[in-house]
Amino acid sequence: MAACAIRRGLLSTASKYNQHKCIHRTLSAIDFSSGFDPKRAQPLCSACGLSSFQQTRFMSSRNRPEGKILEPVGVFEALKQHGKYETGQLFLHSVFGYRGIVLFPWHARLYDRDVSPAAAADSKPDSVGHGSKEVKGNMHTYYQVLIDTRDCPHISQRSQTEAVTFLANHDDSRALYAIPGLDYVSHEDILPYNSTEQVPIQHELFERFLMFNPSRNPLFTARDTLLAWQEKNHPWLELSDVHRETTENIRVTVIPFYMGMRDAQNSHVYWWRYCIRLENLGNEVVQLRERHWRIFSLSGTLETVRGRGVVGKEPVLSREQPAFQYSSHVSLQAPSGHMWGTFCFERTDGSHFDVRIPPFSLESNKYDKASPTGYPL
């Protein structure tokens, strides 16, 4: 298990892989322009007889312009191969490198089109079709997390840091609010660590939601405000389905969320948000150029949307910066529908190829939702 990493320019690096029985140090200095690839971190056997993860540290640069001052910020812990991480678990994001803390877990159905039907045969839950291909949904753990605001400026070009949005708490149906510094993280994205700092994560909700408790592990427990916020806002926060598919080494992951219904011009308008992560699993440098969406509504309409890039950007995916994540919204005048489509990517030689966006359902909940409560007082 990798035990030591160095952060330069506020980017965490660590290796999840270790082929030796003794504890290894992983020393990998990368700046924020390079991203984090755990396969590139080179483990060096220290042969020093370290007997526990608590004896190995990872480092962080101070928040200074030169970004070269290193300081210890915590101690790596063993990855959980079974079970889930608890509320209060500190972690580094294995893809985007930011520091965060777990608020609470979600259990979602993961529809992975990269898994063969035989490999998914043990799964009993729902199934969805992709053309003639039926895909089984396996239960998978995701987490609602807080992002350290010190890291947000460094990841803003690769990952939106406002992953939770909700409709306004009044009659203006066009108003939409976003909660900054929240994210949804898959179990395998988490590199856990611990810290003796009583406020290791900088976020305006940290001390409202969590408190230091030296008698337990993790060292942070949920306050009543977090439990109340989770209960009241559960319908807008709940993650239920995740869809994933890979085309020519570009993996697309989609997470849809139902946001609620509003009245507009004597009709009902149903709103969803969807979070998308694009990951380059290969070595070739590619750039997203166009999006092509097909949106089907239960009312019988089929809409086609084409455009340059996504959210005003045309991200480059390389081995150094392999991932890009964003959120968007869609509305229908029907309680359900479907979305699917393609992203057009360009290679360095000027050639293009299409990457499939896995089809996913837009389903409204069966019950009416009250307005979200937003931040706790």
From TrEMBL:
<dbReference type="GO" id="GO:0042645">
    <property type="term" value="C:mitochondrial nucleoid"/>
</dbReference>
<feature type="domain" description="ApaG">
    <location>
        <begin position="244"/>
        <end position="369"/>
    </location>
</feature>
<protein>
    <recommendedName>
        <fullName>Polymerase delta-interacting protein 2</fullName>
    </recommendedName>
</protein>
<dbReference type="GO" id="GO:0005634">
    <property type="term" value="C:nucleus"/>
</dbReference>
<comment type="function">
    <text>Involved in DNA damage tolerance by regulating translesion synthesis (TLS) of templates carrying DNA damage lesions such as 8oxoG and abasic sites. May act by stimulating activity of DNA polymerases involved in TLS, such as PRIMPOL and polymerase delta (POLD1).</text>
</comment>
<keyword id="KW-0496">Mitochondrion</keyword>
<dbReference type="GO" id="GO:0070987">
    <property type="term" value="P:error-free translesion synthesis"/>
</dbReference>
<keyword id="KW-0539">Nucleus</keyword>
<keyword id="KW-0597">Phosphoprotein</keyword>
<dbReference type="InterPro" id="IPR036623">
    <property type="entry name" value="Hemimethylated_DNA-bd_sf"/>
</dbReference>
<dbReference type="GO" id="GO:0003677">
    <property type="term" value="F:DNA binding"/>
</dbReference>
<keyword id="KW-0809">Transit peptide</keyword>
<dbReference type="InterPro" id="IPR036767">
    <property type="entry name" value="ApaG_sf"/>
</dbReference>
<comment type="subunit">
    <text>Interacts with PCNA and POLD2. Interacts with SSBP1. Interacts with PRIMPOL; leading to enhance DNA polymerase activity of PRIMPOL. Interacts with POLH. Interacts with POLD1; leading to stimulate DNA polymerase activity of POLD1.</text>
</comment>
<keyword id="KW-0234">DNA repair</keyword>
<dbReference type="Pfam" id="PF08755">
    <property type="entry name" value="YccV-like"/>
</dbReference>
<dbReference type="GO" id="GO:0006281">
    <property type="term" value="P:DNA repair"/>
</dbReference>
<dbReference type="InterPro" id="IPR011722">
    <property type="entry name" value="Hemimethylated_DNA-bd_dom"/>
</dbReference>
<dbReference type="Pfam" id="PF04379">
    <property type="entry name" value="DUF525"/>
</dbReference>
<keyword id="KW-0227">DNA damage</keyword>
<dbReference type="InterPro" id="IPR007474">
    <property type="entry name" value="ApaG_domain"/>
</dbReference>
